[in-house]
Each structure stands twice: as structure tokens, then as C-alpha cells.
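Example record used in the benchmark description.
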Amino acid sequence: QVQLVESGGGLVQPGGSLRLSCAVSGFTTSNYYMSWVRQAPGKGPEWVSTINPGGIIRYADSVKGRFTISRDNAKNTLYLHMNSLKPEDTALYYCAQTVGYSGSYYFRGQGTQVTVSS
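Model output (C-alpha cells):
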């Protein structure tokens, strides 16, 4: 059974940092394109970042230089390190096994809420 379980969200002040985790079971993350996608209230999903099986990474322009995607193959876990957070980063963040560098997914988690506010 495939499961993706995110954690690490919360309330943070502008300029702060958070690390999101996505624990995966049911498939090996290093064999697939794995992505983070976010959805702000009242808006559609926004692709954030993807790491491919070869370790090649891409980021949305809106997070480039501030967010870092990584994976721990031994733990079968995906991470998103977020620095210099802005109020516009407020969203539900979910991880997914995706179709290439996109937000189109085969499987996704329920998500973890990130709120950036003073």
C-alpha cells in the first residue's frame, strides 16, 4: 500500500525557516520523480520543486535560492528545507510522486500546513 505522510509544518514568522519531511512507504522514492507541491487558500496547486531518480533538481522561480529539496534513500524520505520564508509561502504543502518536473501526480500525501505570519 502506497503512503506518503508529511510533517514539519507550522506557524513561522517572516524570514524564518522550516523543514518539511515526507515519509514514503509502498515504493522506493529514489526510483521516481518526487516533488513538493503547494496550494494556498483559494488558489490552484503550485509546483514547488522536483528531484529526479538521478538527483537532478529543479525549483519554481518563486522559491529558487530559498528552498532546498533533498531525499534520504535509507529512510525513503523526502525533505524540503525552507529558508527566508515570506507570507506568500503560506500554503498546504504536499509531497507527491509526479510526472516529471510537474505537479501532476500518481500518488500524493495529505499535506502539512505552513503559515508565515508575524
